[in-house]
Amino acid sequence: MNELPQQLVNGLLLGSMYGLIAIGYTMVYGIVQLINFAHGEIFMTGAFGALTVYLYVLPDGTSMLLALPLMLLGAVVVSVTVAVGAERFAYRPLRGAPRLAPLITAIGLSLALQQAVWAWYPDAKSARTFPQIDGGPFHIGDVTLQTGDVFLLVAAPVSMAILAYFVMRTRTGRGMQATAQDPDTAKLMGVNTDRIIVVAFALGAVFAAVGAVAYGLKYGQIEFKMGFILGLKAFTAAVLGGIGNIYGAMIGGVVLGIAETLATAYIADIPGLDQFGSQSWADVWAFILLILVLLFRPQGLLGERVADRA
């Protein structure tokens, strides 16, 4: 029990990362009813975009305090470019097609992005070391935080506050709400729905890029296949919170992160389970939680039962 505060903070950190990625799933689904399974790879390309800026754009020896904003910008540029390109060339031509077509396209795009980074990025076949911020660790009572943890704890709530302001207070944000409710009526009222859809993909990519930089700072390395399992868990977080609800995505991520951390730390030590090792069970709890939510509250924690759009 002495480790409980640390485990709760670890879960909060992990869940915040899931939530940042899950926002992209839920925004796109809320507007175009599409599950973008390539979103995990958009997250991955953002991480490599940040690393590219550090290795090939900035002079050697640049302080991380100066490099971090530029790395974050590089991650955002790469992720947004990939997301907008995917929307324009992969998803938009299939907008009127049966739902199975864009789903298969998303899976194919996910594999293509993985292999593109694996084939073209120098030494991407193995994990690449991600630069770290000097300083730390920081001790608050029984809780220990690394510098990457501090970045994530700041970035997640700030990102959510900016998103809330954008959606609730700007003209484009209100257009997104209108398009999510009824795209045909929104178009009749003068909303450029094609532009709104592009904005949704771009915003989701921005949050994925922030999560990618946070991942690199927290774990110290990135790899071309890292987006697959994180994307699945972020999708689980989006469903858990109520897919289509941007606040639910972050809440679902936090709940999932805490549940996974506590289960890995405590349940895996139960006699009979401990023989497999806690890490062997780390990826299982997310999907156990997803099954339970789908059984007892399929609309998610903050979701509402709504009719499917035709």
From TrEMBL:
BP GO terms, sorted: D-alanine transmembrane transport; L-alanine transport; L-isoleucine import across plasma membrane
Membrane-topology annotation of the record: Multi-pass membrane protein
CDD domains per UniProt: TM_PBP1_LivH_like (cd06582)
Keyword hit for Transmembrane: yes
Gene Ontology MF annotations: L-isoleucine transmembrane transporter activity; L-leucine transmembrane transporter activity; L-phenylalanine transmembrane transporter activity; L-valine transmembrane transporter activity
Transmembrane segments: 12-35, 42-58, 64-86, 98-121, 150-168, 196-216, 247-268
Keyword Cell membrane: yes
Localisation: Cell membrane
Keyword annotations of the record: Amino-acid transport, Cell inner membrane, Cell membrane, Membrane, Transmembrane, Transmembrane helix, Transport
Listed Pfam families: BPD_transp_2 (PF02653)
Taxonomy, superkingdom: Bacteria
GO cellular component: plasma membrane
InterPro entries: ABC_transp_permease (IPR001851), BCAA_transport_permease (IPR052157)
PANTHER family xref list: BRANCHED-CHAIN AMINO ACID TRANSPORT SYSTEM PERMEASE PROTEIN LIVH, HIGH-AFFINITY BRANCHED-CHAIN AMINO ACID TRANSPORT SYSTEM PERMEASE PROTEIN LIVH
Protein family according to the UniProt entry: Belongs to the binding-protein-dependent transport system permease family. LivHM subfamily.
Record protein name field: ABC transporter permease
